[in-house]
Automatic annotation (TrEMBL):
<feature type="domain" description="2Fe-2S ferredoxin-type">
    <location>
        <begin position="206"/>
        <end position="298"/>
    </location>
</feature>
<dbReference type="Pfam" id="PF14574">
    <property type="entry name" value="RACo_C_ter"/>
</dbReference>
<dbReference type="InterPro" id="IPR027980">
    <property type="entry name" value="RACo_C"/>
</dbReference>
<dbReference type="InterPro" id="IPR043129">
    <property type="entry name" value="ATPase_NBD"/>
</dbReference>
<dbReference type="InterPro" id="IPR001041">
    <property type="entry name" value="2Fe-2S_ferredoxin-type"/>
</dbReference>
<dbReference type="InterPro" id="IPR052911">
    <property type="entry name" value="Corrinoid_activation_enz"/>
</dbReference>
<dbReference type="InterPro" id="IPR037010">
    <property type="entry name" value="VitB12-dep_Met_synth_activ_sf"/>
</dbReference>
<dbReference type="Pfam" id="PF17651">
    <property type="entry name" value="Raco_middle"/>
</dbReference>
<dbReference type="Pfam" id="PF00111">
    <property type="entry name" value="Fer2"/>
</dbReference>
<dbReference type="InterPro" id="IPR042259">
    <property type="entry name" value="Raco-like_middle_sf"/>
</dbReference>
<dbReference type="InterPro" id="IPR036010">
    <property type="entry name" value="2Fe-2S_ferredoxin-like_sf"/>
</dbReference>
<dbReference type="InterPro" id="IPR012675">
    <property type="entry name" value="Beta-grasp_dom_sf"/>
</dbReference>
<dbReference type="Pfam" id="PF17650">
    <property type="entry name" value="RACo_linker"/>
</dbReference>
<dbReference type="GO" id="GO:0008705">
    <property type="term" value="F:methionine synthase activity"/>
</dbReference>
<dbReference type="GO" id="GO:0051536">
    <property type="term" value="F:iron-sulfur cluster binding"/>
</dbReference>
<dbReference type="InterPro" id="IPR040506">
    <property type="entry name" value="RACo_linker"/>
</dbReference>
<dbReference type="InterPro" id="IPR041414">
    <property type="entry name" value="Raco-like_middle"/>
</dbReference>
Length: 801
């Protein structure tokens, strides 16, 4: 089933609020009062008075004053408190917010009724004024007294706070000369333009019918809304690299009718596509009812999860589960239950409040024999004793493009299952800068990016549990690695300053939090650990890769290169380690390439002009585009055969020599620029060559500067670890041929697979390895390439092939 989890929770909570509402309203119309402007009082015939210059100023022209109280009753308060006591904070907060919206709607409806009645008699109505909002909350006691709030079960305490919580008191004035306010809908400031509860008078609404993955969804949209953002907001995952910035040309849809098209959009589409009403969602602004078929949904990618180096560590687990007998209480032995637990486990142990709440019942129900799980010095689980003690953990590698998760039995140190998927945040952009920009430019952007990731992690947890017949409560810890931006998004922490000079992250230390604090559904007292970061662009994944390849323990000089949507590099050995990052962009993962794809089935992954056919595809499927390893291979071949020169310029057919005829015939134009036809309308263009030149020169410049900073010769490097998916599938010879790596490193390259995942597993299984990772943060020094005096020169030199 495909649906947007956040929208589902909102709709579920809305229905629940409606079932819990016990709506009551009481009001009093007062016409016998006088205003003392000197004392700033509105005095009623009972002698009671409202006070404050704000309320006097706004009601001094009123002929009638209406005092009112509206309540939703106490059942909502109780349900919200229940959710919080169960640690279900997300649902509790959603329920609380939606109840508040209902209360505001009911208040506005009451005001509208008053206004309609007043207008029948030629009167107007002031705005609504709430005690505590610009005037003293003590006035709330006067309103409660004059309307007799106890009749509807509303009470007020000595601090002038009324209960139930979802209750409001207010006043408004009626008269011929009062100033009528411009009442705005409570929906005016909400970004959820397609919300089914939205009500903005005068706003044009249109119906967008979307067909995707054999599903159909009808969305209400406002005039001028962007189709791309409508689809994303409603959980329809489009293949794209730019987050709707109109630069990748991937978010293709078919419309039911012809719309105007700009030259900018035409660049990304063929004449045949335009004729068939294929459009890019990011260019379509809603101005009518539309039927839309999504063409470019995200493809299932081939994701690297296996490591190429042997994982062998000595286990030093933080978490242990054992069966214990608890001494029973008697009249002669009335010691508390916590003392009995501590006595049974022989130590000064902390017990969280969540386990104390029903501790006696758990012990009694299980005849005082239980399984106790201890993490460091904290008990995180007390449950029925079983013949098999279950103790699981998950290592999580959160890449910008992909996610890899590893389920481990912590007692035995054995892998149980592996899961991989595309990072759902790709919908908001292919690279971290695009996503950071989205988080800044949208009021709910950070939460959207965070929740997309958390929802996917919870799906992974659910998959592991169902597939392996285990309970979520038996998953006690997650160790997560990723680049700094991904770790910030995971923890719902702002990353905006990572993208702007001087590029400062909010934190770099190891973070250890209860999983429930960030919405991850494992054991309620379980933890999430993120490994430390080095800088804004060298993160926990790089620390994990150094850990996995044991560079910090090596006598020999080693170079680690992990090229993804960013390039991270570490050079050194046990004596000295330096790191840098290069803004390679996502070109090596297919993004920004005219016919680029991620590592999905049908992506051209290798090219060799000496063979026929001269290319292969992932899954041996019909060619659909080119992935990162494929684009490096084909440029290597174009250079080898003299079709592209060392400056990156395409040569014409007339200029090339000694090239097989069937290869030379493929030299052509695409959209009026030089290109090479591969197959099925798939081209490598001059623009693509330039994109790779920019990316590879940044990486090469970084490597050369690190070599200079360390004061060594390139030949002194004995091992080069190519990490990550791109590093695993690229041909080292092709990387050398295009100048991605120095030619002196030929023969020293080891493709080490998902080293970041291996490092996360090591930190999960061994507390000593976690401590080693923490120590690495202080051991690795960072070079900021963008401000280095040699960077421009090295970058320009690196542009040549």
């Amino acid at each position: 089933m495909n649906f947007d989890v956040d929208q589902y929770l909102i709709e579920e909570a809305t229905g629940e609020v409606q079932s819990l509402i016990d709506y009551k309203m009481i009001h009093q119309v007062c016409d016998n009062f006088h205003i003392d402007e000197r004392e700033n009082k509105i005095i009623f015939k009972t002698g009671d008075y409202l006070f404050g210059d704000y309320i006097v100023k706004n009601l001094k022209e009123a002929e009638y004053i209406i005092l009112a109280i509206i309540t939703l009753g106490d059942r909502i308060d109780k349900r919200v408190n229940d959710y919080f006591s169960e640690s279900n904070y997300t649902k509790g907060m959603i329920l609380d917010v939606i109840a508040g919206v209902f209360l505001e709607i009911l208040t506005n409806n009451f005001w509208e009724e008053v206004r309609e009645n007043a207008q029948k008699y030629g009167k107007e109505v002031t705005d609504i004024f709430y005690p505590g909002n610009k005037w003293d909350i003590k006035n709330q006691a006067v309103i409660c007294k004059l309307v007799d709030s106890s009749k509807i079960g509303v009470n007020i305490n000595h601090s002038f706070i009324i209960t139930p919580q979802k209750t409001v008191s207010f006043v408004c004035g009626v008269g011929e000369n009062v100033k009528r306010p411009v009442k705005e809908s409570v929906c005016d400031d909400c970004e959820a333009k397609d919300c089914i509860y939205r009500n903005v008078p005068g706003e044009s609404k249109y119906k967008v019918t979307v067909r995707f993955s054999s599903n159909t969804k009808v969305i209400e949209a406002s005039e001028g809304e962007n189709l791309f953002h409508i689809l994303v907001r409603n959980g329809i995952r489009l293949n794209n690299f730019c987050g709707g910035s109109r630069i990748c040309g991937q978010c293709k849809v078919i419309l039911n009718e012809e719309l105007d098209i700009s030259d900018d959009e035409k660049y990304f589409l063929t004449d045949k596509e335009i004729k068939n009403n294929v459009r890019l969602a990011c260019f379509v602004e809603i101005d009518r009812d539309l039927e839309v078929k999504v063409l470019s949904e995200e493809q299932k990618a081939k994701i690297l999860t296996k490591e190429n180096n042997l994982l062998s560590i000595e286990s030093h687990p933080r978490i242990k589960t054992s069966t214990v007998d608890i001494r029973r209480p008697t009249l002669n032995d009335q010691g508390d239950y916590v003392k009995r637990i501590k006595e049974a486990v022989s130590g000064e142990i902390e017990i969280p409040l969540g386990l104390l709440s029903n501790l006696p019942e758990v012990l009694e129900e299980n005849d005082y024999k239980v399984n106790i799980t201890i993490r460091k010095n904290e008990i995180i689980s007390i449950k029925k004793a079983a013949s098999k003690q279950y103790n699981y953990g998950i290592a999580l590698d959160i890449g910008t493009t992909t996610i890899a998760a590893y389920l481990y039995d912590l007692d035995e140190g054995k892998e149980v299952d592996v899961y991989s998927c595309l990072n759902p945040q790709r919908t908001f952009g292919a690279d971290v800068i695009t996503r950071i920009t989205y988080s800044i430019s949208n009021s709910q952007g950070l939460y959207q990016l965070h929740s997309a990731l958390i929802n996917k992690i919870n799906e992974i947890v659910e998959e592991f549990c169902v597939k392996n017949s285990i309970d979520k409560s038996d998953i006690h810890e997650i160790v997560a690695v990723g680049n700094p931006t991904m770790i910030h998004f995971l923890l719902n922490v702002s990353s905006k300053n990572i993208a702007v000079s001087p590029y400062v992250p909010t934190f770099t230390s190891k973070i250890e939090v209860k999983a429930k604090e960030i919405g991850i559904n494992i054991n309620k007292e379980g933890y999430v650990i993120t490994l430390p970061l080095i800088s804004s662009y060298v993160g926990a994944d790089t620390v994990a890769a150094v850990l996995a390849n044991k560079i910090d323990q090596s006598q020999e000089l080693c170079l680690l290169v992990d090229i993804g949507t960013n390039g991270e590099m570490v050079l050194g050995n046990k004596d000295n380690l330096i790191a840098s990052s290069a803004a390679a962009g996502p070109a090596f993962e297919g993004a920004g390439i005219t016919f680029g794809l991620n590592g999905a089935e049908g992506a051209i992954d290798h090219v060799d002009f000496s063979k026929r056919p001269f290319y292969s595809t992932i899954g041996n499927k019909k060619a659909k585009g080119i992935c990162g390893s494929g684009i490096v291979d084909i440029i290597s071949e174009l250079l080898k055969y003299g079709i592209v020169d060392i400056t990156g310029r395409f040569l014409s057919k007339e200029e090339v020599k000694n090239v097989p005829v069937d290869i030379a015939e493929r030299i052509t134009l695409y959209k009026d620029e030089p290109a090479f036809l591969i197959e099925n309308g798939i081209y490598v263009t001059q623009k693509d060559i330039r994109q790779i030149q920019l990316a590879k020169s940044a990486i090469l410049a970084g490597i050369n500067i690190m070599i200079k900073e360390m004061g060594i010769d390139v030949n002194e490097i004995k091992k080069v670890f190519l990490a990550g998916g791109f590093g695993n599938y690229i041909l080292p010879a092709s990387a050398i041929a295009i100048g991605l790596l120095p030619k002196e490193l030929q023969g020293k390259i080891l493709q080490v697979g998902n080293s970041a995942g291996v490092g996360a597993i090591m930190a999960l299984l061994s507390d000593k390895e976690l401590e080693r990772a923490i120590h690495l943060q202080s051991k690795i020094s960072y070079i900021e390439l963008s401000t280095h005096e040699d960077f421009q020169n090295e970058f320009v030199k690196g542009m040549y092939f």
